[in-house]
């Protein structure tokens, strides 16, 4: 639909020339029609939590009581994540619910690159890593100091259930604070201090929290090796960039005969291991992180200690 035709339709709906507007998710942001009071979303199970929250905000912007109906196929079972997304939208209908929705979005999707440059979720509109870096640079500028060179971001895209559950840290502000401390750790010592503090304040961490700490530790290791990407692609785990000398290529083949090294793109692709050779499930969570760390050490040796950087 062209720009002029689109504008004509929206103006007509605004002026109540017709009562029903059929549209795509394009209306999730930037549309403000106070007299719209009913929303029907088809196949809501396919939309992300942030999308659902934004779309729901298109109605109820005036004095009229609003209704939002999120539909999904009755004859098709919902995935676990789809059910959690729809349940979250149904439970949080009060004003200011955006923070709760953002935290649940983080928990459903996992930490992702919360501890890196690309962020998961929409926590207060700015990712922790970016926020911390911006504040640090502003303080250094105010002091007249030269900002340190920016560290290389490391993307960790592995199937790891890593987050801080509500039943472990119930207060959103405190949970955000702990995420910040884990995200800002740039050395094992600083990370250990954060973990000790967390354990003292909130008790023994459950599995998702232990996984979150494990992701942070593995990210430090990957950064020490100069990696920027460790991710699952189909049935393989990719490591990049890796420029392997002949001796290290031989070592890779000795430890992992099915591994593929692409010299041009400096990538190593290794079949993802399973819990057992026959009929086993693919490794995930801490077991997969430990396997990745051991692979790097087997092929590359111990990383060269880097100069300590401030937290």
TrEMBL record:
<keyword id="KW-0347">Helicase</keyword>
<keyword id="KW-0067">ATP-binding</keyword>
<dbReference type="Pfam" id="PF00271">
    <property type="entry name" value="Helicase_C"/>
</dbReference>
<feature type="domain" description="Helicase C-terminal">
    <location>
        <begin position="1"/>
        <end position="107"/>
    </location>
</feature>
<dbReference type="GO" id="GO:0016787">
    <property type="term" value="F:hydrolase activity"/>
</dbReference>
<dbReference type="InterPro" id="IPR037235">
    <property type="entry name" value="TRCF-like_C_D7"/>
</dbReference>
<keyword id="KW-0378">Hydrolase</keyword>
<dbReference type="InterPro" id="IPR027417">
    <property type="entry name" value="P-loop_NTPase"/>
</dbReference>
<dbReference type="InterPro" id="IPR005118">
    <property type="entry name" value="TRCF_C"/>
</dbReference>
<dbReference type="GO" id="GO:0003678">
    <property type="term" value="F:DNA helicase activity"/>
</dbReference>
<protein>
    <recommendedName>
        <fullName>Helicase C-terminal domain-containing protein</fullName>
    </recommendedName>
</protein>
<dbReference type="InterPro" id="IPR047112">
    <property type="entry name" value="RecG/Mfd"/>
</dbReference>
<dbReference type="GO" id="GO:0006281">
    <property type="term" value="P:DNA repair"/>
</dbReference>
<dbReference type="Pfam" id="PF03461">
    <property type="entry name" value="TRCF"/>
</dbReference>
<keyword id="KW-0547">Nucleotide-binding</keyword>
<dbReference type="InterPro" id="IPR001650">
    <property type="entry name" value="Helicase_C-like"/>
</dbReference>
């Amino acid at each position: 639909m062209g720009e002029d035709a689109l504008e004509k339709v929206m103006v007509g709906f605004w002026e109540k020339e017709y009562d029903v507007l059929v549209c795509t998710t394009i209306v999730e942001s930037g549309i403000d029609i106070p007299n719209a009071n009913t929303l029907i979303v088809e196949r809501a199970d396919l939309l992300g939590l942030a999308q659902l929250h934004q779309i729901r905000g298109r109605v109820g912007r005036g004095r009229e009581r609003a209704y939002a109906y999120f539909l999904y196929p009755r004859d098709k079972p919902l995935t676990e994540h789809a059910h959690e997304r729809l349940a979250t939208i149904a439970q949080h209908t009060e004003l200011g619910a955006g923070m709760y929705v953002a935290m649940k979005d983080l928990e459903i999707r996992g930490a992702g690159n919360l501890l890196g440059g690309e962020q998961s979720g929409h926590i207060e509109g700015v990712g922790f890593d970016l926020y911390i870096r911006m504040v640090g640079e502003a303080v250094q500028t105010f002091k007249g100091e030269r900002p340190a060179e920016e560290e290389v971001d490391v993307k960790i895209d592995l199937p790891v259930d890593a987050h801080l559950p509500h039943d472990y840290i119930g207060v959103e502000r405190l949970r955000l604070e702990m995420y910040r401390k884990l995200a800002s750790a740039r050395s094992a010592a600083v990370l250990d201090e954060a973990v000790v503090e967390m354990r003292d304040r909130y008790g023994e961490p459950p599995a998702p929290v232990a996984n979150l700490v494990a992701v942070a530790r593995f990210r430090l290791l990957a950064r020490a090796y100069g990696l920027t990407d460790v991710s699952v692609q189909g049935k393989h785990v990719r490591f990049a960039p890796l420029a392997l000398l002949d001796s290290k290529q031989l070592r890779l083949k000795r430890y992992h005969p099915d591994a593929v090294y692409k010299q041009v793109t400096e990538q190593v692709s290794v079949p993802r291991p399973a819990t057992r050779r026959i009929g086993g499930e693919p490794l995930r969570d801490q077991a997969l992180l430990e396997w990745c760390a051991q692979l790097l050490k087997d092929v590359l040796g111990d990383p060269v200690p880097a100069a300590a950087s401030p937290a």
